[in-house]
Amino acid sequence: MASPSGIPFPPGISMQDVQGLGQSGMAALDPTTKHIIKFPFKDEERANCNREREIYQRLERSSLPRPSSLLKFYGSTDHGILLEYAEHGTLRRYLNGSTPPLPLPTLLSWAKQAAEALQFIHANGIMHGDVDCRKFFITECLDLKVGDFTRSSDATPEGVRADISDFGSALYEQVTGYLPYPGLPQDEKERMFRQMEFPDLTTVEVKGIIFPCWAGHYTSFAGVLEDIEQHIRALLGR
């Protein structure tokens, strides 16, 4: 069914079911299955949806243990891909409704869940390509899930480092409530990061994880996870 705007809604889906909008697609809650169906605005933009479907299918075929923090994939239809519903929406939406900083146990738990999913993705030869708080989703039980692979591609060393650096920025946003260098154009932010000119982390929680992500000290998410787990042990007094 097409809306007055010409958007090709899948059967049984209307504007009131829409949960989120992206650059080239919509995510709507199917009222019957309670799954998210993600579909393109226009048929000519279906390539992004097809790419994401292929990434999910590739991850489903993996022989490696699948972390629970990867958004579940339920297959696809002619209209789009079927995904797990995260009741609280994106992490950014959740943060916008909260007062920073997040409690440290929650922050570390979500950081661990995100890093586990991203490590699994990289281990399968895929880079996420767009790691930020809009690509992390929060369930009703307040677990974090990683999704949205519209910009993913085969992993390269540079791509892995970029995902890790972007993970540091997502962690920074969770701690402070805002992105690094808010208000600056994206190309200026990228220039500053290339020159190792990072935001001041003096009073920022988990700066011992954020800074190494930005500075390129980690070569994989295995190192990130090791430091997150060390912070968790310290928090628990072990």
Automatic annotation (TrEMBL):
Q: Which GO terms describe its molecular function?
A: ATP binding; protein serine/threonine kinase activity
Record domain Protein kinase: where: 13-238
Q: Which UniProt keywords apply?
A: ATP-binding, Kinase, Nucleotide-binding, Transferase
Q: Which Pfam families match?
A: PK_Tyr_Ser-Thr
Superkingdom is: Eukaryota
PROSITE patterns according to UniProt: PROTEIN_KINASE_DOM
SUPFAM superfamilies named in the record? Protein kinase-like (PK-like)
Q: Which PANTHER family match?
A: MITOGEN-ACTIVATED PROTEIN KINASE KINASE KINASE 20, SERINE/THREONINE-PROTEIN KINASE TNNI3K-RELATED
Name of the protein described by the UniProt record = Protein kinase domain-containing protein
User: Which organism was this protein described from?
Assistant: Aspergillus carbonarius (strain ITEM 5010)
